[in-house]
Each structure stands twice: as structure tokens, then as C-alpha cells.
Amino acid sequence: MNSSIGIDLGGTNIKAALVDMTSAQTLATLSKPTRDGEFDGDTPRFALTVREIVHEFEAQAGQKLRVGLSAPGLANPDGHCIDWMPGRMHGLEKFHWSAFLERECRVLNDAHAALLGEVWAGAAKDTQDAFMLTLGTGVGGAIWSGGRLLSGKIGRAGHLGHITIDANAACDDFNTPGSLEDAMGNQTIALRGEGHYATTHALLDAFSAGDEHAAKVWLTSVRHLAAAIASLINVLDPEVVIVGGGIATGAGSRLFDPLQQALAGFEWRPGGNQARIVPAQLGDNAGCLGSVFNLLQHS
Asked: Could you tell me which residues come within 8 angstroms of residue 128 by beta carbon, excluding any fewer than 6 positions away?
């Protein structure tokens, strides 16, 4: 069996899949709690859980398997570990996964992995140029250009949520003034909604019910998103733009319809060429598949 293990190490849950590397078919899946902050001696509990998952899948496959692992933070250029992830996922920084698991394990950023999954088996399949935005608590991103993932010198490339929409606005957590993340992420909804909405989903419910204030807040956010996407299209010239994450999934046409309308006014379309704007297809499985595809890219 030509299979490998893909693991998406998140702050709440560890998602894992046994994947056929020839067909990109998912053969089995597992999900276990991360238990961030718990340790067994000096070893983070999530590392022990990852090892348990690897052993379970290897018992099923009947052989030792390679592992691809995605996690938040900036991955080491050599793919051995996450070099930088302050404030959460305690014990993740500099943790050498291949040494701990005693088998090949290649590590990459979780947003990078999600895009690679969509490139291999989802919304960006058979494309050479694409970028992805994930709309959730914050706004994540990743770039596929000329048939390769852009990671940059230190793994920072693709932080598309931290581009400036309004240079006169306050700085976000990454010191970016008026960022796309602050314009669209769930973490700023109380401020953008003047305290009327606890979550973006609550805002969308009010928007669907015809609330004029909710419509103003939501459509302003979508307009900012459209301006950001149009700008990124000018920089990256993609075939397809993938929009995913919990907000996109929950909003559906309430996001994509006004987004397309705004882009009709913003996007430069020489010769009638226009980038396709599509929802992500793989959901929670994207990071696992992308982690395995990353192994293929470095075979």
C-alpha cells in the first residue's frame, strides 16, 4: 500500500488521515483532543497523542509510514519543526517531530497545508496559480504560484490576512495597520458591529432577517474583502481564488454573491480575463491531505 499519514495539529483538535499517495483517497480518519498546555514530563501531551495516532494507522496499514504534519506558526525551511509559534501550543516551537516519532515527518504551516490539499484534490486541482483565504477567528492565507507553494525566506509568505486595507486604522496583532483580518475576522466583530453581535454568525442571522444595521456592517466587511482580493489578484495573477474557513462555510451565498458584485467593480480584467472565486471543497480534511501532498513534493 502506497500510503502516508497526514496530521493537522490544531489548537483544539488533532485531525489525522491515512491517505493513499497515488489517488489522494482518504482511507481512514481520526480526531482527538489537542489538550494544549498539558505535559507528560517535558513532552507536550499533543505530541504523545500524535505518536498514538501514528501507531494506530501503522497497525492498520501493516507497515511503517511517513508522516506529514501541519500546525500553526512558521515552519522551519527544512521542514523539521515549527520555528515560531508564541502564546499558544506550548511546547510546539522547535519540537523535532522526526526525532520524536522515529520516522520521516515533514512539517509545514497549517494554512499552507490547507491550500496544498485543495491543490492536490480540491478546488485548485490542476492549477498552477492560486491563493487561498480562510475566514475565521482571524484571516489566514497561502499562495500557490507557478506550481509551487510560496513560503518565503522564513516561512512568513501567505499571511494574507495581514495586508493593509486602511493605513489610518489601528494595528492588528501583527502590527499591520487596518488589516484584512481586522476588517473580516470574527475576533473584531464586536467592535465592527458596535456591540450588537457576539459573532459573525449572529451578524449573518440579523442580515438574513433584513436588519439594516447588520447589512451595513456585513456588506462593508465584504467590500473590504473584495478590495483585498482584487489587490492580491493584481500581485499574484491567479487562475482561482479559494475562500474557506468557518465564516465562508456558514455564510454561503450571503458572502459569495455580494463578493462577486464588489469584485465586478474592483478587479482589473484585461482582455476579459477574470479570476475564479470559489469556496474551499475539502473542509476539515484539507490540512491532512495537504500534509501528505507536501511529502510528495519533497520525495
From this structure: 144, 145, 146, 147, 239
